[in-house]
Amino acid sequence: MPDILVVGGGFAGVWAAASAVRALREAGAPHHSVTLVTPGNDLVLRPRLHEADPHTMRVPLDRVLGPIGVGRVAATVTGIDTVGRRVTTADTAGQELVLPYRRLILACGSRLVRPELPGADLLFDVDDIDSATALDTHLHGLPGEPVAPGRFTALVVGSGFTGLETATELVGRLRVIAAPHGATAEVRVVLVERAPVLAPGLGPGPRPVIVEALERLGVETRPATTLERVTPAGATLSDGAVLPTRTVVWTGGVVAAPLTALVPGARDPIGRLEVDEFLRVPGAPGVYAAGDTAAARADPDHLVLPSCQYAIPLGKHAGHNAAASLIGRTPAPFRPAPHVTTLDLGEAGAVSTTGWERTVRLTGAEAKTLKRTLTAQWIRPPLDDADELLRQADPAFRTRRTTPA
Ligand SMILES: Cc1cc2nc3c(=O)[nH]c(=O)nc-3n(C[C@H](O)[C@H](O)[C@H](O)COP(=O)(O)OP(=O)(O)OC[C@H]3O[C@@H](n4cnc5c(N)ncnc54)[C@H](O)[C@@H]3O)c2cc1C
C-alpha cells in the first residue's frame, strides 16, 4: 500500500511527492512509500502552452521523480473513498486498479470552462497539451487553405491572463507562419472581452501597459463584446459583427478538475476544496489538497490564485505535511510570499506587478527577461538529480516562492 498517494502529475503533484520524500528521508523514515498517479508520462508546462511548439512543453516525470524513488501509476483516478482510504483508477486500456492509501494528496489541477454556443466544437484553446497542439497544427495548416478573407485572422475570446498572453503571442506566431507565403499583411488578431474594460481581473495598475502593448502589436480589441456563434469561416459577435476567421481561441477561465467533487468538503466558487493552513481538507481525514484544486488562504484577505506561483509551494507544503503527519513531526503552515504577477505580452515585452493591487514594477524587456527565466528555467524541476530536487523540495526553499510567475 502506498503510504502517501499523490493524485496529479502537474506542478503541485510533482513537488508534493518530492517534498514528502524529502521529509521522510530527513526524519529517517525512508521506508514509507510515496506513489504518484496521473494519466500521462510528463509534467506539462501549462504556462507555456500559448507559445509555438506546445508539444515540446513537457518534462518526463520519470526523470524527475525516478531518482528519488517515487512510484508511478499511469492511470486516471475515477473514484475516491475517503472513508475506506482508497482510490479507484483506470489505465488507458480501461483496466481498473484500486489503490489504498494512508495519506492522499489531491493535486489534479484545473480545466477550462468551455462555453455552450453554436459552433463550440470549432473553438480552439490552450488549456492542455493536446488542445494547444491542435491549435498549433491548425495554424501551420493555414497557408494551405484557400486564399480568402480571414485566413490569417485569429479571434481570442477573453482578456484574462491566458487570453492576453495568447493574443499577444499569436501575432508573432501567425507572422512567422504567414511570412514564407508573402502573407504577413494578412495577419490580424482580435481580442474580445465581455467586461467593459480589458484585463478586468488584472485591475487598473498594469492596464495602461497592457493596452499600449496591444496597440503596439496591432491587436484589435473589442471590450463589452462576447462571442455568439462560430462557423468554419467566421465568428459572430454580440454586437452583430461577423468576423471572417478560421481560428477562434477560447480562454474563458478555469474551474477545479472534476475529481475534486469526489472529496467531501466545502468549496469555493470555482470548485476548489477549502483547506486549513496545513492544506488538510476538513471533513476528509488524511486528505490534503494542493495546486489548482485547493482554495488555500494566501493571506487573511485573499485566496491563492490558480497559478504556478502557488501550485509549487502548495505542493511542497502538502507533501511535507502529509509526511509529517505519518511520522509524528510538526507540520509547516502555508505562508506564501507576497503576491506577484508577470504577464507575457509577446513581442511587446511583459509586465510584472507586485501586491494584490498589482503595482507595476517592471515592464518591457526587463520584465520579458524575468518572464523568460521563469518559464524556461524556474518552473522546470531538475532532471536526473535527486539531491537538487530534494534541496528545492524544502517548503522553505525561496526561489519559487518569491518570484513572480
Ligand atoms: C496557457 C496557460 C498559461 C498559464 N500561464 C501561467 C503563468 O504565466 N504563471 C502561472 O503562475 N500560472 C500560469 N498558468 C496556470 C498554471 O499552469 C496552473 O495554475 C498550474 O499548472 C497548476 O498546477 P497544478 O499542479 O495544480 O495542476 P496541473 O498543472 O493542471 O496538473 C494537474 C495534473 O493532474 C492530472 N489529473 C487531472 N485529473 C486527474 C485524475 N482524475 N486522475 C489522475 N490525475 C489527474 C493531470 O493530468 C495533471 O498531470 C497558465 C495556464 C495556462 C493554461
In short:
This protein has 405 residues and is of the alpha/beta class. The chain contains nine helices and 26 strands. Residues 400-405 have low confidence and may be disordered.
The shape is globular
Strand order of the largest sheet: 5-2-1-9-20
Q: CATH fold name of the largest domain, please?
A: FAD/NAD(P)-binding domain
Second rung of CATH, namely the architecture of the largest domain: 3-Layer(bba) Sandwich
Bound small molecules, deduplicated: flavin-adenine dinucleotide
Computed Rg = 22 Å
Major sheet, described briefly?
Answer: 5 strands, parallel
Category by helix and strand content: alpha/beta
Instruction: Give the % helix.
Output: 25-40%
Strand count: 26
Low-confidence stretches: 400-405
Alpha-carbon distance between the two ends: 36 Å
Q: Any idea of the CATH class of the largest domain?
A: Alpha Beta
Describe the fold and architecture.
By secondary structure, the chain is an alpha/beta fold. The chain folds into two domains: 4-111 and 254-337, FAD/NAD(P)-binding domain (3-Layer(bba) Sandwich); 114-250, FAD/NAD(P)-binding domain, CATH 3.50.50. It has nine helices and 26 strands. The chain has helices at 11-26, 61-65, 129-141, 161-178, 207-217, 308-327, 364-378, 386-392, 399-402, and strands at residues 4-7, 34-38, 42-44, 58-60, 71-74, 76-81, 86-90, 96-100, 103-106, 110-112, 153-157, 188-192, 220-222, 227-231, 234-237, 242-244, 247-250, 254-256, 273-274, 287-289, 294-295, 297-299, 302-303, 340-344, 350-354, 359-363. Strands 5-2-1-9-20 form a five-stranded parallel beta sheet, with helices on one face. Strands 13-12-11-17 form a four-stranded parallel beta sheet, covered by helices on one side. Strands 6-7-8 form a three-stranded antiparallel beta sheet, with no helix packed on it. The protein is globular. Mean pLDDT is 96; it is low at 400-405. The structure holds flavin-adenine dinucleotide. Flavin-adenine dinucleotide is lined by residues 7-13, 37-40, 46-47, 49-50, 76-77, 107-110, 126-127, 162, 165, 257, 259, 291-292, 306-309, 311, 405.
